[in-house]
Design a protein that fits this description.
The chain is an alpha/beta fold. The protein has 10 helices and 5 strands, in the order βααααααβαβααβαβ. It has 2 domains: 114 residues, HAD superfamily/HAD-like (Rossmann fold), CATH 3.40.50.1000; 78 residues, DNA polymerase, domain 1, CATH 1.10.150.750.
Length: 197
């Protein structure tokens, strides 16, 4: 596989361009600081992943920032901490503050000179707009879970992106899907006949 074989680079964004783990851990600090036992970074991320994936499966139409508010509440219940709904909502809106990886902006600016860049993300439009400001690049297409009404790894998300790009004359053989998650991205991308890295 050569990068020059592709016309479009599709990005997952979170975990690939945005440091979602650090963003989550920082955003959860008001909660984790109240927990009576020591939680490692892995403890926090594993518990978050469980509640997030459960909520995505059961409430696929819920906007990501609303979904994260419920995740915060579920984590508080699991860890035996009382929280207000306002605290939950504040965490839901924290995605806009999650940091970009140090090299993301420069890399995207370079790639934009040679490829169309698109986003296929499990976030909502409001959350992504904050992240996009940190990345400082104009994406040629932004396909969010909010737009599609489901969360990856659902086939719907990849079908939506492929149908939209096909209408622009771009065949899936010209798309490289760039992502961190085997579960949410690489497996479904390969199932749809996409190359991924």
């Amino acid at each position: 596989m050569k990068l020059g074989d592709f016309k479009v680079l599709a990005f997952d964004v979170y975990g690939t361009l945005i440091d979602w783990e650090s963003g989550m851990v920082t955003g959860l600090r008001p909660l984790t600081d109240k927990v009576s036992r020591n939680l490692s970074r892995d403890d926090i991320l594993e518990a978050h992943a469980y509640h997030e994936s459960t909520m995505q499966r059961w409430t696929p139409n819920k906007k990501y920032y609303d979904l994260l508010a419920v995740v915060y509440r579920r984590l508080a219940e699991e860890w035996g901490v009382e929280v207000s709904w306002e605290e939950c909502q504040a965490y839901g809106l924290s995605v806009r503050q999650w940091p970009a990886f140090e090299d993301s902006r420069e890399a995207l600016a370079y790639l934009k000179q040679h490829y169309k860049l698109v986003v296929l993300t499990n976030t909502d439009n409001t959350s992504f707009s904050g992240s996009n400001a940190r990345l400082d690049v104009h994406f040629d297409g932004v396909y969010t879970a909010e737009d599609v009404g489901s969360y990856k790894p659902s086939d719907r998300n990849f079908d939506y992106m492929l149908e939209t790009l096909s209408r622009q004359g771009i065949d899936k053989s010209g798309i490289l899907h760039t992502a961190e998650s085997m579960f949410h991205d690489h497996g479904p991308a390969n199932k749809h006949g996409l190359s991924s890295c």
